[in-house]
């Protein structure tokens, strides 16, 4: 009983410290971000990357990365559209800590307290996915892709418990096939909260503590995440493909889904590809 009480007390202390540090990090970095905003993306991206890495560290996450992650090099051949499965709002700092790019989010996110204003500040493209506005949203994305901007897309359209990958909605792949779009590379990415920080595989209940889906309340969930000791997030970057090598957006979406789904099955239980495991590197945001 004493041990349980002590662990509970430790979790509360950890939550309080991390929540306070999260507020301090936000207050500390937003003013300089606003200051460099008129100078363009280069200065803003550096501060945003620092913020995302801070958020990853404060949630106790470490990132185990495999595959090519050098979006800067990929940009020499055209912009990159990263397409990933969606488990939690935690996916955003996880990807933002690793790659330079802008997020595509559903319109409701813009109205969330705290995170909505932060998303608007970062230049997030909000989409409604209704027919009346789909063409305008597609044109905005195509224009920014043509300007060389990378994007992160969660094509499931919602988050899940992370055990499966839902069907990908192909509508937002359509800018890749617009005639005036530059050569676009699409890179599928698998995200899995599958291991604790000691390397032990998490069970479904433990993984579910990091997943945020359905009608879960966000701030309560975030505070519970702050209480946890932490986990390793596997981020697997699959081979990037040229969008124009696919006949249409649906075949491109299906290819991306299959790659992400195979990666998730591999991470969660099927034997891992030995070469890929050897190439994996452990990224500790706290050490940056």
TrEMBL record:
Pathway: Lipid metabolism. Residues 80-194 form the Phospholipid/glycerol acyltransferase domain. The lineage of its organism: Bacteria, Pseudomonadati, Pseudomonadota, Alphaproteobacteria, Rhodospirillales. GO terms for biological process: phosphatidic acid biosynthetic process. Keywords: Acyltransferase, Lipid biosynthesis, Lipid metabolism, Transferase. This is Lyso-ornithine lipid acyltransferase. InterPro entries: Plipid/glycerol_acylTrfase. CDD domains: LPLAT_AGPAT-like. One of its GO terms (molecular function) is 1-acylglycerol-3-phosphate O-acyltransferase activity. It comes from the Bacteria.
């Amino acid at each position: 009983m004493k041990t349980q009480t002590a662990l509970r007390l430790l979790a509360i202390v950890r939550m309080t410290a991390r929540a306070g540090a999260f507020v301090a990090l936000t207050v500390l970095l937003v003013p300089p971000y606003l200051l460099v905003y008129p100078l363009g993306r280069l200065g803003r991206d550096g501060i945003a990357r620092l913020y995302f890495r801070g958020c990853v560290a404060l949630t106790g996450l470490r990132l185990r990365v495999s595959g090519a992650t050098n979006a800067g090099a990929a940009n020499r051949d055209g912009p990159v559209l990263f397409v990933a499965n969606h488990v939690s709002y935690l996916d955003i700092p996880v990807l933002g800590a690793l790659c330079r790019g802008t997020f595509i989010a559903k319109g409701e996110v813009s109205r969330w307290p705290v995170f909505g204003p932060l998303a608007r500040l970062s230049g997030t493209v909000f989409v409604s996915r209704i027919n009346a506005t789909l063409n305008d949203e597609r044109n905005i994305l195509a224009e920014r892709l043509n300007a060389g901007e990378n994007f992160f897309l969660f094509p499931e359209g919602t988050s899940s418990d992370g055990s499966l990958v839902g069907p990908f909605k192909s509508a937002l792949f359509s800018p890749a096939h617009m005639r005036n779009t530059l050569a676009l590379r699409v890179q599928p990415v698998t995200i899995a909260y599958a291991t604790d920080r000691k390397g032990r595989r998490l069970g479904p209940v433990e993984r579910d503590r990091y997943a945020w889906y359905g009608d879960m309340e966000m701030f309560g969930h975030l505070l519970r995440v702050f209480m946890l000791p932490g986990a390793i997030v596997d981020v697997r970057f699959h081979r990037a493909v040229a969008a124009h090598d696919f006949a249409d957006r649906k075949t491109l979406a299906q290819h991306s889904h299959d790659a992400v789904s195979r990666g998730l099955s591999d991470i969660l239980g099927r034997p891992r590809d030995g070469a890929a495991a050897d190439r994996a590197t452990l990224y500790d945001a706290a050490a940056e």
